[in-house]
């Protein structure tokens, strides 16, 4: 309850508001959207936790307070209005007025229709951002590997400089030429997604490294502890390596862009369930986003990623699946249920694999433990 208390409270309030707003139907739709968002974003929570544990307590709190406001109001409410306003050349008041009229996704000129029309650009940007995230992860040689038969050769060829950019660029060209009605728009949006990832991720890494050098700390990853440090075998940074100042800011910015990319499919998919912006904001934003934040905090506080070391791998494979689905959706509709189930399947398989690994290590006499880390 310490971790999920606020999420349950916000869920209860949101459901009550939905009931008074639109009766039992609105309440049911709100609940469905909340479940949809959590199922689609569990891999997001795992990746968030991996990054959040590298941040100082101050920036963790910023992410869990200011960040949630951006996630709820920015991506789940303002972002669709912004897209519709730009697409239809409408002012803010006109866009809000059009949204409140609801409308059917199949009706030209309606709010849902205009947002669906902008789907290729949204999917290209989000898909390429997430694909770059996955490629950078899978092309890096790590001490711990999950799907060794696949991750080992990928890490070997990943030694080629800028391979992620090359693979991502080829994927974008193929998608634009084979799936897009307007290849130029998809190419521009996809390139912007790649540039955003490279810029934000690069700045975060740069300032984080500067902060670590100033503090004299060392990042300990994948159980590789600094010799003579006495640090326990675990995944994650030492207290000295916590990102503060500019490093913390850019990690925060990176997390927000990452969260935005993850939310694209949920925001667009929500219109297959309802075109009411109020219900979407309550279900995706207040319920879904709050629970994603709570799951993130839970993973950090309990040291879950240290106990179940394959979870991070499963999350990144789920990200790869989501990126591919977003890119494919430029030309073909992909049911949101498939998107959610694929992500849950990867996370579940990684969790089971982690349990089996821990049992093997215990049977061999190797201690498997975790370190509780307080997050905010």
Model description:
- It is a single chain.
- With 376 residues, the protein is mostly helical.
- The chain has one domain (5-363).
- Helices cover 73% and strands 0% of the residues.
- The protein has 13 helices and no strands.
- It has helices at residues 5-52, 57-88, 92-100, 111-117, 119-138, 148-157, 163-178, 183-215, 245-270, 277-301, 304-307, 311-328, 336-363.
- Helix 2 packs across helix 4 (111-117) and helix 5 (119-138) packs antiparallel against helix 12.
- The longest helix is centred in the first third of the chain and has 48 residues, at 5-52.
- Residues 216-241 and 370-376 have low confidence and may be disordered.
Please describe the topology of this protein:
Blueprint: H1 5-52, H2 57-88, H3 92-100, H4 111-117, H5 119-138, H6 148-157, H7 163-178, H8 183-215, H9 245-270, H10 277-301, H11 304-307, H12 311-328, H13 336-363
Keywords:
376 residues; mainly alpha; disordered C terminus
Kindly, what is the distance between the CA atoms of the first and last residues, rounded to a whole number of angstroms?
15 Å
Question: What is the percentage of strand-forming residues?
Answer: under 5%
* Whole-angstrom Rg: 21 Å
Structural class: mainly alpha
The low-confidence runs, each spanning 5 or more residues with pLDDT under 50, are 216-241, 370-376
Helix/strand order, N-terminal first: HHHHHHHHHHHHH
Shape: globular
Q: Count every beta strand, where a strand is a DSSP E run of 2 or more residues.
A: 0
What is the average of the pLDDT values? 77
Largest sheet: none
Q: Percent of residues in helical segments?
A: over 70%
Number of H/I helices: 13
Query: Domains counted in the coordinates: how many?
Result: 1
